[in-house]
Amino acid sequence: MKKPELLVTPKSIPHIKELIEAGADAFVIGEQKFGLRLAGEFSIDEVKEATQIIHEAGKKVYVSCNALFHNDRIDALDEYLKQLQQIGPDAILFGDPAVLMSVREFGITIPLHWNPETTATNWFQVNYWGERGAKRAVLARELSLDEILEIKENSKYEIEVQVHGMTCMFQSKRKLLGNYFLYRGEVMEIENRKENKNMFLHDKERNNKYPIYEDLNGTHIFSPNDICLIDELTEFFEAGIDSLKIDGILQTEEYITTVTSLYRQAIDAYFDEGEDTYDEIKDELFEKIKAIQPPLRPLDTGFIYKETVY
Amino acid sequence: MLQLIENESIRETINGKRIITKKPELLAPAGSLEKLKVAVHYGADAVFIGGQEFGLRSNADNFTIEEMREGVEFAKKYGAVIYVTTNIFAHNENMAGLEEYLRAIADVGVKGIIVADPLIIETCKRVAPELEIHLSTQQSLSNWKAVKYWKSEGLDRVVLAREVGAEEIRLIKEKVDIEIETFVHGAMCIAYSGRCVLSNHMTARDSNRGGCCQSCRWDYDLYENVNGEEKPLFNEGDAPFAMSPKDLKLIESIPHMIELGIDSLKVEGRMKSIHYVATVISVYRKVIDSYCADPENFKIKREWLEELDRCANRATASAFFEGEPSYKQQMFGFHAKKPEWDFAGFVFDYDEETQMVTLQQRNYFKTGDTVEFFGPEIDTFTMTVGQMWNEENEPIEVANHPLQIVKFKVEKPLHRYNMMRRKNK
C-alpha cells in the first residue's frame, strides 16, 4: 500500500519551512486574484521562492487557480499561467474551464488538479475532467464516506480528500459585509476592516457560528465546525486515497503546524508500524488536536457520516 | 444607465423600415401542466419544466413523462418549445435511470435539457443526441473563455451566471458564437449558483440536488472575535445581518438585452402561480414585441410597469446587469410586500349570448368587489361583481370555496385562460 500524500496550506514562507519539518508532503499556495480561500497570500515572487524551498526539500507544491473568473481577469490569468510555467510548480488547481483552455492555448505542461469545491460530486466527473487533462480531482466536502470510496473505486485519476479544517459553504460575488455596514451608514467600519478575518455570523436557532470574510472574489462563509478525521483514516488508507488535505484557512501558523505533525504521526503509524499501532494512538492524536482547538471551533466529521436529503 | 449601442446584425429593412428581426426567445417557468399552458398562451416562446428526477426543485410540482408529452403537444400549437431542467450535480447514487430518463424526454418531443453536470451532458450526447444541451447557471459561467470551452464540447446554449453584467455579455457574444441565455425576472441566489451549501450544513438538505431551503433568506447576528471575546457588531434595535437579495427585474433593460443579441430571456419561478406567470410573461412579451417592431420610437409604458407590480411579492432590483449591486439591492429588516391585487379567478368559459362568464375561484371574492380582467386577447378592464351563481345555478353572494365554479355577468367578452384579479382593501 502507498502512503497518501499529506497536503497542507502554509500561511507564509517561514511557515513552509516549519511545515516541512512537521512532515508535510505537499503545499497549496497562491494568491486570491487567482485562487479561492487560501490560508496565505503568496505573490508570484513568493511562489517562486516557495517552489524552490519546497523542491529542495523533495516535496511538492501546487498553485491554486480555482477562482470563478470574469472577463476582466482572463488576461491576467494567461500571464500568470505563463509565469508559473517558468517557475515549475507540480500542479495547478482549477475549477473554471477557462484555465483548461489557456493551458492548452499556451502549451503549459504543469499538471492540472480539478478543484471546483462544491460541484465535484461523482466519479464520472473525475474521469471526465481527467480525460481533459486533470490528473487529480479534489472532491466536494459534502460527500459521505461511502460516496468517496465509490468515487475512488471507479475513477482512473488521483483523488484528494480534505480531512481537517473548515470548509467554505457559500461564496457570493457581492460585498455582503460592506453592504451591511453601508446600509447602517457605517462607512468607517469598512475602511478599517480591509484585512479583518475575525468576524462570524451567529445562527441563534442552531447556535452555530459561521466565519465570514470578504476579499477580491466576494464574500465567503464557512462551516461552523472544523472537520477532524485523524481517528477515522483507516478506510481512506485502505481505499488508497491519494492525498489527504489539511486546510488551514483562518487558523494560526502554530495550529496548522501542530495539526500537520499529528496527521504525520497517524499516517506513519499506519504504514510503517501497521493498523494496530494506528488504532492504539489515534484517540490520543484526536485528544491532542482537541486540546489546541480554538474555543469557537468545535470538531466534527463533516459529511462523512452525515446523510443529506433533497 | 448604460449606453444603448444599436446592433445591426439583429436588424432588417422591411417595407422601408429598420426593425429588429432577431427577437430573443422569451423563456417561462412552469411547475405544472396548467402553468405551462398559461405561459404559452400568454406569450412565452419556450417553457422550462422539471421532471420527477435530476432537477433542482425537488418540491415543485414536477412533470411525469406523460405530462411532458401533453405539454409539448400544447406548446407546438403555438409554435413554442419545451426544455427540461436536469441541473443537479449528481452523486454516484443518482446515476441510475439517467439514460432511460433522457431517452424518454427526447421521445416525447422536448427540445432540450438544461444541465450542469458533465455526467448528464455526456450521457445525453450518447443516448439522446437529438436533444439540445443548455449549460445551467449552476455552472456559474462568468467569462468568455469558459464559454468557449463549453462551445468546444458541443453545447448549444449557455445560461450565464447571474453575476455577469451587460458589458461582459457583449464581450462573450463577440468572442464566442453560441446561444446565450440570461435571467430577466424573478427570485435569485445571492451566492454564485452551485457554490452554496448552506442548506447542507444547516438542514442536511443538499442544495445542489434540489434541497435548498433558502437559508440565505434567514437573519443572522454579526459578531467579531477579539482575542476570544465575542463582540457584537450591531446595536440593540439594528436590523440583523441579512443577505436576502431583492428579486431580479430587468424589464427596463430589455432593449439593451435585445441589442446585445442575447438569444433567450429567462423568467425564473417554477413554484410561482399561474397568475404570476401570466402577468410577467404578458408584460415582457409586450416589451419585446414593441421594441423589435419600432426600436426608434420605443418607450416603456407606465401601465406595463404597474401591471408587472401587481404580482410582485418582494422588492425588485437589476442585480449585476447594470453594474455591481449595492446594499440597496438587498433586503434588510422587514421585507414582505403585500400585493395590491390578488388573483381571484381563472376563466374557463364565456357565453357571448348570455354574457355569462364561468370561472374557477382562486381566491375569496364577493358581490360588490372591484375586479379586473386581463389576458392576451383583451384590454384590461375593471368592473364590479354583481349577482353570482354556483355550478348548480344557485344564486350566491360570496365565492369562498377554493376552486369552486362561479358564474356571473360580464359585459365585455372574455376568453379561456383570461384571469380575474380582486383589489385588496
Task: Briefly say what this structure is.
The complex is a heterodimer of chains A (310) and B (425). Chain A is 40% helix and 21% strand. Chain A is built from eleven helices and 14 strands.
**Helix percentage of chain A:** 25-40%
Distance between the termini of chain A: 37 Å
Q: Determine the structural class of chain A based on helices, strands and strand pairing.
A: alpha/beta
Number of helices of chain A: 11
Oligomer: heterodimer
Cα distance spanning the termini of chain B: 37 Å
Estimate percent helicity of chain B.
10-25%
Q: Round the Cα radius of gyration of chain A to an integer and report it.
A: 19 Å
Side by side, the strands of the main sheet of chain A go 1-2-3-4-5-6-7-13
CATH architecture of the largest domain in chain B: Alpha-Beta Barrel
Provide the domain count of chain A: 2
The order of strands across the largest sheet of chain B is 3-4-5-6-7-8-9-14
CATH third-tier fold name of the largest domain in chain B: TIM Barrel
Poorly predicted residue ranges of chain B: none
> Low-confidence segments of chain A, ≥5 residues, pLDDT <50?
none
Q: What would you call the shape of chain A?
A: globular
CATH level-4 homologous superfamily of the largest domain in chain A: Ribulose bisphosphate carboxylase, large subunit, C-terminal domain
State the domain count of chain B.
Answer: 2
